[in-house]
Design goal:
Helix 2 packs antiparallel against helix 3. The radius of gyration is 14 Å and the shape is globular. It is an alpha/beta fold and 154 residues long. Strands 1, 2, 3, 4, 5 and 6 form a six-stranded mixed beta sheet that branches. 42% of the residues lie in helices and 21% in strands.
Length: 154
């Protein structure tokens, strides 16, 4: 299994996600990956994420959403984390606002790894102590550290 610190960096963490709705949160978090050139085709990347969200909500409950996509234009796995104190409406199955958004992107050729990472993220973020630690983290470096320390739960 991929170590989280190989795909999650402090520069890919938004500690104060401003969006109040799912599509805005996806745009805001995707900009973390597109603004620094990690993702070469920014328009397609965002369009694919939005299209996936339109198919079905990526809100998984317990205050967590995991928007995701497979991309031909990227050559490695990417993860960005957004923390919202106010909460974002992701039309989650439990109706709860989302406070943790984990945006995952993988190369299309790595579909099996994509599914494994999605499952690991979902398992990790189902733990209440992990969610609370992320929401209460002092900074983006602490968010990365939480993922690194808790990877055995995923």
């Amino acid at each position: 299994m991929e170590k989280w610190d190989r795909i999650l960096h402090a520069s890919n963490v938004l500690m104060d996600l401003k969006a109040q709705r799912n599509f805005d949160a996806i745009r805001e978090l995707a900009s973390v990956l597109t603004d620094d050139g990690i993702v070469p085709d920014q328009k397609r990347f965002l369009a694919d994420l939005i299209q996936r969200e339109q198919q079905a909500s990526t809100g998984i409950g317990k205050g967590v959403a995991v928007p995701h996509t497979h991309e031909d234009t990227i050559d490695r796995q990417l993860l960005a984390i957004g923390i919202s104190q106010e909460g974002v409406d992701f039309a989650s199955p439990d109706g709860a606002p989302v406070h943790i958004v984990a945006l995952l992107a993988t190369p299309r050729k790595h579909q099996k790894l994509h599914m494994e990472l999605l499952a690991a993220l979902s398992r990790l973020l189902q733990h209440e102590d992990v969610r609370e630690s992320l929401i209460n983290a002092a900074d983006s470096a602490e968010v990365v550290e939480i993922f690194t320390q808790k990877r055995q739960l995923g």
